[in-house]
């Protein structure tokens, strides 16, 4: 059974181009140009993933994403015309699975769609892979071996691994880890991530779990 992509894009040429490229890769598609029509469409149809433009007539992509996330884990890739917007979108904690900036290569979009779908379909329980996080004791183990994480390192790993594949900006990680109002720089997060990676590598030397996205942030993905 072929997978389905809902394209929510008000620029008809871009929507048509995406539709053609996705069809060539075997995807079924539907196109919506007005944000106010998305909710009704989702109530009456099913889709595997949604490509969602940020600026839409009727209802913005931000509002659509927020509403969908209230009761659905439908994979969403946000599309924006400004790379600077990505950090703001991450800061809003919309829960989107990925972000793409215009202008983009249609082939890149197809590749991103496949990656997100593969990630959501093959997502396994981390404990089955050997990673266990005990929230009560702040103890993290891989195949029974204690990683000896600090409280901050444990919280970072927990936040990232709770939503595999989701990109977290440094500012969002600061807010989640340091909720006591103290001022913490992005470099502090980078330092903790570096130490966390080193401890993980001691147990899993050939597996990268925490991935950097240049000038954007970090994500957890078991590869």
Please characterize this protein's 3D structure.
There is one protein chain. The chain has 223 residues and is α/β, with parallel strands linked by helices. The chain has 2 domains: 4-121, Response regulator (Rossmann fold); 126-220, Orthogonal Bundle (Arc Repressor Mutant, subunit A). It is built from 9 helices and 11 strands. The strands form 3 sheets. It has a 5-stranded parallel beta sheet with strand order 2-1-3-4-5, with helices on both faces. A hairpin with a 2-residue loop joins strand 7 and strand 8 (145-146). The protein starts with a strand and ends with a strand.
Features:
223 residues, alpha/beta, Rossmann fold, Arc Repressor Mutant, subunit A, 5-stranded parallel sheet, 3-stranded antiparallel sheet, 9 helices, 43% helix
In short:
The chain is an alpha/beta fold. It folds into two domains: 4-121, 3-Layer(aba) Sandwich (Rossmann fold), CATH 3.40.50; 126-220, Arc Repressor Mutant, subunit A. Helices cover 43% and strands 20% of the residues.
Write the layout of secondary structure elements.
Blueprint: E1 4-8, H1 12-24, E2 28-32, H2 38-44, E3 49-53, H3 61-69, E4 76-80, H4 84-91, E5 98-101, H5 106-121, H6 126-129, E6 131-134, E7 139-142, E8 145-146, H7 151-162, E9 168-169, H8 170-177, H9 186-203, E10 210-213, E11 217-220
Parallel strand pairs: 1-2, 1-3, 3-4, 4-5
Antiparallel strand pairs: 6-7, 7-8, 9-11, 10-11
Helix pairs in contact: 1-5, 7-9
Q: Please give the alpha-carbon distance between the first and last residues.
A: 26 Å
Poorly predicted runs? none
Biggest sheet architecture: 5 strands, parallel
Question: Taking all residues together, what is the mean pLDDT?
Answer: 86
> How big a fraction of the residues is strand?
15-25%
């Amino acid at each position: 059974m072929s997978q389905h992509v809902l394209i929510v894009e008000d620029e008809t040429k871009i929507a048509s181009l995406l539709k053609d490229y996705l069809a060539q890769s075997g995807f079924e598609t539907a196109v919506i140009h007005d944000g106010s029509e998305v909710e009704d469409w989702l109530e009456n149809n099913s889709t595997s993933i949604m490509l969602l433009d940020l600026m839409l007539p009727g209802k913005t992509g931000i509002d659509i994403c927020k509403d969908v996330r209230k009761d659905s884990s439908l994979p969403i890739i946000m599309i924006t015309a400004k790379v600077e917007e990505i950090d703001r979108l991450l800061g809003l904690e919309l829960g989107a699975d990925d972000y793409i900036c215009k202008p983009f290569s249609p082939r890149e979009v197809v590749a991103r769609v496949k990656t997100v779908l593969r990630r959501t379909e093959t997502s396994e329980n981390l404990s089955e892979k050997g990673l266990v996080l005990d929230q009560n004791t702040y103890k993290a183990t891989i195949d029974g071996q204690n990683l000896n994480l600090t409280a901050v390192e444990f919280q970072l790993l927990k936040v990232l691994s709770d939503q595999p594949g989701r990109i977290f900006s440094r500012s969002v990680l600061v807010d989640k880890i340091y909720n006591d109002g103290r001022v913490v720089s992005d470099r502090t997060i980078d330092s903790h991530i570096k130490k966390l990676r080193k401890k993980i590598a001691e147990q899993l030397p050939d597996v990268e779990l925490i991935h950097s996205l240049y000038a954007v942030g970090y994500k957890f993905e078991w590869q």
